[in-house]
Amino acid sequence: MPRSIIAGIGMYVPENVVTNNDLTKYMDTSDEWIQERTGIKERRYAHRTNETTTTMGVEAAKIAIERAGITAHDIDFIVFATLSPDYYFPGCGVLVQRAMHMKEIGALDVRNQCSGFVYAMSVADQFIRSGMYKNILVIGAEKHSFGLDFTTRGRNVSVIFGDGAGAVVLQPTEEDDRGIMSTHLHSDGGEAEILAMYNPGTHANHWKDGLADFDEAEIANMFMSHQMIDNAQLFPNMDGQAVFKKAVVKFPEVIMEALDKNGYQPSDIKVLIPHQANLRIAQFVQQKLKLRDDQVFNNIQKYGNTTAASVPIALCEAWQEGRIQKGDLVCLAAFGSGFTWASALIKW
Ligand code: UT7
């Protein structure tokens, strides 16, 4: 069975740099608070009308495809991970197929938030291993800036997130000492609402109130209503501390799972690319696994948390900086809303 290699990688971040001080114009926060609690100094925000999650994904994809030495016409499957799609439906995958004038290939959207890219890559890896496809485009992209509460009420969430995109092209290789060695996917929906955007949705408050009868007026307002807008119910919700506590347990666990499966130790990792959720989480994981500074790549300082885009953006930057060479052991790991968490071990 062939393994998959990352044949090309690309990233795109919008030009517009938004500093922590810029955010103080809209909400009661400070550069000091944000840096101390998250490590973030600045993030990028997409152009409000000229850039979407899909267009950023396409820009990253163009680079990945060129670096793979192929054309968009050679791509035979798309997997697109995002929590901020252009449309409620259809997904961004088909919009990439259209924008890049690709053949009538399959396009799949993955909705696994911060773990989305690792999940998407795992799905693509299975298609490569089974021999079904030869050139799979995997994209993680987000335009968070369009959907955040920029008042003080939403500051615990809004200061963290940024926009951007990353993409890879997966291809099969017959070399048995290279490629994606294994991927590990997990979920626990027991606390799904701890980090979630409930509306618009079809939940009808079942998770809160149980099955219930509502009158027609209430039902009419359940999917989308003026009340939701007035009460800021169309923004993401997060219990940050609860997420933090779970993340610092699950990150090391899923990294060790990947290492154990392949007979490696943390000291064998050349570069760990953790999902860029919070610099403090990455530092905790580094400490727990006794990794040196040069073994962990972080760029949250510049881009904030870009959810499904964070792993491919960080992987791309690490590679562009020469931190990853052929034969190096690279570990990707992510944790986020769902909860979902995942890892991938790659011999580059
Ligand atoms: O990628 C998706 C997964 N998400 C994560 O992994 C996020 C994990 N969680 C975190 O990163 C942290 O919990 C946060 C950075 C979100 C928050 O940091 P914290 O140290 O957990 O702060 P907190 O929510 O406990 O809030 C502490 C205080 C509160 O004030 P009081 O009640 O102590 O007076 C907040 O109102 O900080 C206040 N606060 C802020 N102050 C200034 C919350 N957000 C801000 C802000 N600026 N932006």
Distance between the termini: 18 Å
Q: Percent helix among the residues?
A: 25-40%
Largest beta sheet: strand ordering = 1-7-6-4-5
Assigned CATH superfamily of the largest domain:
Thiolase/Chalcone synthase
What CATH calls the topology of the largest domain is Peroxisomal Thiolase, Chain A, domain 1
Indicate the mean pLDDT. Answer: 95
Top keywords for this entry?
348 residues, alpha/beta, Peroxisomal Thiolase, Chain A, domain 1, 3 domains, 5-stranded mixed sheet, 13 helices, 33% helix, binds oxa(dethia)-CoA
Description:
By secondary structure, this protein is α/β, with parallel strands linked by helices. It has three domains: 3-173, 3-Layer(aba) Sandwich (Peroxisomal Thiolase, Chain A, domain 1); 179-190 and 238-347, Thiolase/Chalcone synthase (Peroxisomal Thiolase, Chain A, domain 1, 3-Layer(aba) Sandwich); 198-234, no CATH class. Helices cover 33% and strands 22% of the residues. The protein has 13 helices and 13 strands. The protein has helices spanning 20-23, 31-38, 53-67, 92-99, 116-129, 155-158, 206-209, 216-220, 226-230, 240-262, 279-288, 300-303, 310-320, and strands at 3-12, 17-19, 42-44, 77-81, 106-110, 136-142, 164-173, 179-187, 195-196, 237-238, 271-274, 329-336, 340-347. The strands form four sheets. A five-stranded mixed sheet has the order 1-7-6-4-5, with helices on both faces. Strands 8-13-12-11 form a four-stranded mixed sheet, sandwiched between helices. α4 (92-99) links the parallel β4 (77-81) and β5 (106-110). α3 (53-67) packs across α4 and α10 (240-262) crosses α11 (279-288). The longest helix has 23 residues, at 240-262. The radius of gyration is 20 Å and the shape is globular. The model has no long low-confidence stretch (mean pLDDT 95). Bound molecules: oxa(dethia)-CoA. Oxa(dethia)-CoA (UT7) binds next to α2, α6 and α10. Oxa(dethia)-CoA binds next to α2, α6 and α10.
